[in-house]
Amino acid sequence: MARIGNRKNDEIRDIKITRNYTRYAEGSVLIEMGETKVICTASIEDKVPPFLRNSGTGWINAEYSMLPRSTHQRKIRESSRGKIDGRTQEIQRLIGRAIRSVVSLDKIGERTIWVDCDVIQADGGTRTASITGAFVAVADAIHKLYKSKAIKEMPIRNFVSAISVGIVNKTHMLDLCYEEDSSAQVDMNVIMTDSGEFVEVQGTGEERPFSRDDLNELLKLGEIGNQVLIKEQRKALGEIADEILGVDYGNEVVIATNNAHKLEEIGAILKDFDYKINSLKDVDLAGIEIVEDGKTFEENALIKARVIAQKTNMISISDDSGLEVDAIGKKPGVYSARFAGEDATDADNREKLLKMMKNVPMSQRSARFVSAIAVVFPDGKEFVVRGTCEGTIAMEEKGDNGFGYDCLFIVDKYNKTFGEIPASIKNAISHRANSLKLMKNEFNKRISR
Ligand SMILES: O=c1nc[nH]c2c1ncn2[C@H]1C[C@H](O)[C@@H](COP(=O)(O)OP(=O)(O)OP(=O)(O)O)O1
Ligand SMILES: [Mg+2]
């Protein structure tokens, strides 16, 4: 039987998160999940409940309410009736718990963040939409506190979102609308973080008990839904999304290379870098063998940096580099290190290159060094950049400086090989100098908070 709106069973409704929806609150979001619409605001008050006074710790409180005409029949205002009903009480506590679960309250100082979730139109899943929207509003409010320097550290540890799942007509489905919810045999709300952990699961066998298999199936759907929601939250938060988590990557990096020459050059080029540079030896991974089977410099650089980031849980920076010689179809390219075979030495590789280029005149010996630098952060975020340096392949080896193909590479600007040029100059103009400059730029964007 087709679902209302022809949705697949593991598909959520159209979602739209609009930030800065109203003007005064520090965080204000309209979240729309299909026909369910909730305004979520986060307001910051510079005081805490009595039990937290002089503790240095803050609090997050949530209130939830439905407008009279958010439902099919008008619902009397709780304020007119003079008391809030049990359902409202339960929901606002749930929202408060969900948001508190991902915020370090001791890092927001003695402040209360008031979360207000007002349902303007209800079509099922209002409590879960409230949580998903409230997180974005709170993130915005906290980000403002941070930007105004009222707090020193970002207190948000994770994103959090929520979605409903259930069994309707014997079918497990995700994100129930009102009609589906009303006829559900089993009904469940799944609240999760961006790291795939659970914050709360509320499941009820309304019309019949459910089995462990049902539970597993429903949790799987909940996971799918929350992954989509967290992507949407990220999208809505745009460029501040990365700053929100305020992950502390520490102040050290590891250079994922087994090549001592590269390590030396990278160290020299990054001498003003704010991070302590470790070698593979420093992290007890000297000589680690990583299969570089990528088709591009970028792919290989990422392969190396990923392995080392994963093993060390540190920011890992790798270089994959090589020479592209135009006359021989940009060879040796990614095969530069193993041009003359798996165990080839630099000298073997140079000899092979000179042989292949034997009859090529100077005017056709153009080439470039390429360096791809990949950076992989402990949380899996990554990027890769490329730097190049143009030159010409010499007829014979010249100079003893550098390594690899240096003594065969006449760099354009100096009309000398890198073998003849001091390291200080090479490190100012080389492919690696260029790639690392781009890397620093990109790096600072990622960690700037
Ligand atoms: O500035 C350079 N001056 C001269 N030669 C260079 C340069 N930069 C890369 N090359 C050559 C050396 C090696 O034949 C290949 C890099 O291969 P590539 O796999 O990236 O490095 P690798 O195996 O020596 O060390 P690792 O993978 O552990 O970083 O290109
Ligand atoms: Mg290599």
From TrEMBL:
Enumerate the CDD domains for this protein.
HAM1, RNase_PH_bact
| Residues that, per the record, bind phosphate | 87, 125-127
Q: What highest taxon heads this organism's lineage? A: Bacteria
Chain sites annotated for binding substrate:
257-262, 321, 403-406, 426, 431-432
* Gene Ontology BP terms: nucleotide metabolic process; purine nucleoside triphosphate catabolic process; rRNA 3'-end processing; rRNA catabolic process; tRNA processing
Needed cofactors, names only, are:
Mg(2+)
Q: Name one GO molecular function term.
A: 3'-5'-RNA exonuclease activity
Recorded protein name is Multifunctional fusion protein
Query: Native species of this protein?
Result: Romboutsia weinsteinii
Gene name tied to this protein? rph
